[in-house]
Amino acid sequence: MAIKRLFVLGVLGVVAFLGGCVRQSLSPTTAVLAVIVAEPREGQAPLTVRFDATRSSDPAGPLTDHLWDFGDGTDVASGAVVEHTYR
Description:
The protein is of the alpha+beta class. The chain has a single domain, classed as Sandwich (Immunoglobulin-like), CATH 2.60.40. It is about 20% helix and about 20% strand. The protein has a 3-stranded antiparallel beta sheet, with no helix packed on it. The longest helix has 18 residues, at about 1-20.
């Protein structure tokens, strides 16, 4: 009888635990629209270029961060407007 009672209590515990689990479907996010202006667009090295992403937008709300990786081994820059010198 004690084993049966423990089994029933165990099953009730599992049901109570799983009953608290809520299945939530996540909707896909809408892509951020990146609008980047680079000035100057060409020139001789060393060339300092100003990158401006202030016209970029996110339908889900305001953009909170801008990260720039120029692919040349320099540190990642942050901000909506940055300058980078190509050597």
